[in-house]
Records
---
Amino acid sequence: MREWLLDLLLVRVDEFHVGKANDEILGGYIRSSDRIFRIHQGIPIIYPRVLHRYLKKIIVAYRQIPPDMWSSLRSDWFKYLRKQQAKLIIHGLLSLLRKKRVKKINILSVGCGKGWEIWLLVSYFRKMNIRFRIVGCDISLRALYEAKRIARKCSLTTIDFVCAPAEFLPFKDSTFDMVLAIFGALDHSLMFPRAFREVSRVLASGGVFIGTVLNRFALDWMVKVLKSPSLFAKTVRYANRLFARIRVPVGKRTIRIPTHFYNVFELNRLLAANGLKLIYLKGIFSLLPMNFKSKKFSFFHRMLSKIDNLLSASPIIRSIGRYVGFVAMKKEIN
């Protein structure tokens, strides 16, 4: 943990006891009123007690997932997914730079895992000679330990991490110029409307929110449903449920994670209700079916991936992807 992170935290620091090495805080605690927040291996763990109890099951589930679960090295499908996410992030960053003149960019990555999007931005900022501070937060300490290890290995002193949920971002209002919520951060939030409110609260006026959500009306899913009478019946039976319980393979077994599937209209309403204007939308796996169980693209899949990539932001196609990527801007306060 870096001392500059204290200036960003929402919690009041009444007492601060730490152990240091090489100008970095490795352990200790922050006392705030009647609460004590631990710092473990350089990562502060900041949850409201009630929220921690409410999220306990999903926290346990996420800590069982290996940090490299979605590495682009695993398959052509993962590689394609990361490529599309990278294009979305750079599009959002350029939208910010065109809109605001900033000497230094403050960025929050919600649900950062081991920090894939953070390292992407670091490489881009170095090429552009842009000063930055990045904070990654996640509910999985296991993933954050790996992200912290990478940051230390690369001597990145302007990056730090906090163990916290999307529903309670422990940062001051209007702290960040850009907030990321990529690949699961909003899908598995048990109080997703609150997560959108929290993002808006910590985002500065004119700042950019970049995220992806799972789509309720994905084309490849609708095709599967229409081909299978039993799956169609099950989909109709559970259509009104706010959350599905998807299976995520972990080693030789699977774990179930509560998941909310959005649609484009709901996404737009959530953004607008929190003072965020949608400025860009794209589909990911719109025409190319998503298949994380397979390793290599066939010739047919390679052709579909090129068409999917080319048309990803076009009307209709952008609304039928398995994932919907978006860029939104917080309305400026006069």
---
Amino acid sequence: MVIVRAEDKTPLAKFGSDQYAAKVQELLAAPHFNSKVSSGQRMRVESETECYNFNSGAGITIIAVTSKNYPERVVFPGLIEDARTQFIRAFAGKWQVANEGGLSSKFKKSFASLFQEYDDVEAKSQIVRLQGQVNAVTEQMKGNISKALENLEATQNLQDKSETLLANSKKFEGTARKLSCAMYWQLLKLRLLVFFLVVLVIIVVLAAAGVFNPPADSGGSATAVTTAPPRL
């Protein structure tokens, strides 16, 4: 196995027989190596007797040399991912600046433990299969939780909007009530003004008709004429 810094294709640590080193170097020197080994993509190159399994992720490319009958379902999600996780955990902040082969001896014990663990293919196949099922369930749970949080956020936003709408409606109701009262008093004033104008017009008309003039005096001042009786 070889662990390579993806940025500059520098082998940081390796473990195992040197008989495969030339093929590994050939793969690393290929013009389109980086484009083929994109992040998360799994590649498998077969020769007559062995397979070169490589995968990139988190800035690290790992090449694992296995027999042709070693199952992909074990080497990729199992051996390679476990090696990546342990390597990053062991050399966090160091592997980015390490020199070629500088971490081989420090990771040798972890390499040996991983290879011994993954030699039992049947047991690891069951474990990897169960782990895959657990990961699938975990991803589904994450998706469900994410959707639930989105729904909760949408509900919260709807509640906030409803509260804002209710506050605005109460404010509008108060403003409408004040406006209604103001219009009522204006209408009342207008009606009173019209009433007084009508009364004033009636008074003016009556005055012009002489209704309010004093009546003529017809008694007491005229001299009564008495006819004298004839003389005999």
---
Amino acid sequence: MSELCITCGKRPRKAGRRQCGPCAYRSEDQEKARLRRQKGRTQRREHKRRLRRAQGAEPMEVIRQRAALRAAQRPKLSAVEREARRLERLRARPWLQFRDGATRYRWRYQNDAEFAQRERERAIVFRFTHPEIAAKCDRGDHWRLATLRADGSVTEEVVRKLLRASSCYLCGVELTPDNRSIDHRIALALGGGHTASNLAPCCLACNARKARKERALLLLSDEMKG
């Protein structure tokens, strides 16, 4: 009886071979796949080089030589100094301790108030300037109506200017990052349009109160029609 395969340790192998037939076939397939990946990487690298040369950029050899020269001129640090610099970077940006980008974002959003506020404002700007994308994430009809009644006048500059407003247009209370929002003067459900002239800075309390009244009017109109 032949000796056992060195890969699976189960099937006998033929004389002069180290693997059985199925294991040898799989190993050959893996080697072919590795060679294909290597060939693809080489082709992509060569394509980037040709593109850079066509655009008039410096050859990669010159860039590598300059980088090597800078690395040689850089002072050598001991292991203790490198660890001290790493700890200093972590103290300045503690979210870098995580490898996963989603974990980094979640940690920073939960622990950095300025970053969280900046991201909330960015989300508001994105929803108002791209209502067709917001409609895919929102189950209600608000952004779907905004998509249908948009005239292109709601730009990023308009939305950011409304977010920088100092007071609510309904009650006059001072707007802060915690109570700031944007309201449609004439609700979309009542026939208003998603236009720059129909938007106004509003506090969250007035926005919610106005939304409740608009829903009540909408229900009343539906009952009258029925």
